[in-house]
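Priority: low. Protein: TetR/AcrR family transcriptional regulator. Input follows.
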Amino acid sequence: MMGKRELNKARKRAEIVDIATRSFFERGYADTSMSAIAEELGGSKATLWAHFSSKEDLFAAVIDQQVDGFSQDIDEVLTSQTYSVPALRRFCLRFLECLLRNNAIQLFMLVLGEGERFPEVREMFFSRGPAKIRQHVHEFYAPHFGEAEAEKLTQLTVSSITGFRSDMLLRPKKPSKAEQERYINGLVELIAAWDSVRNAS
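Result:
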């Protein structure tokens, strides 16, 4: 249980992160300033600086908040799961669904747009988001396939689904749910078929 002071501090921090999220998504990393966030927050700039020492620190908090929600959904279908075709299909469908949420797309576009000018943005995002997801996927595959094959399958699975998401974003007309499921089914069938051949040899 948090005391009143700690609770108020946590609420203020959450408010700052919410304001910063909107600003980063709407203006981009370069055009978001600590001064503008402090102004929207109200009160003194000291309040903002008491919670976050820099724009990079604040951006990291925004990424962590976005990734935490994403990771919880992924963990729900991966944690304590052993490899099976149905479990793999559930994970792949959930992964694509999470990638297509508005906040996930906005964060992806932000990192893509600002990553060249600000490499720290790309590095921060990768270490806090994709790297964690890849570790979860690797741990899902490893008990069944072994470490080396799990690494290859992790790369195949994550790259296939994130690549499909990018393809969807470029299309004038978004693929239907049925089309999305067909893509996932094809990926899962490919992995399952390879596993069958591996076991037979």
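The chain has a mean pLDDT of 90. Residues 4-27 form the longest helix (24 residues).
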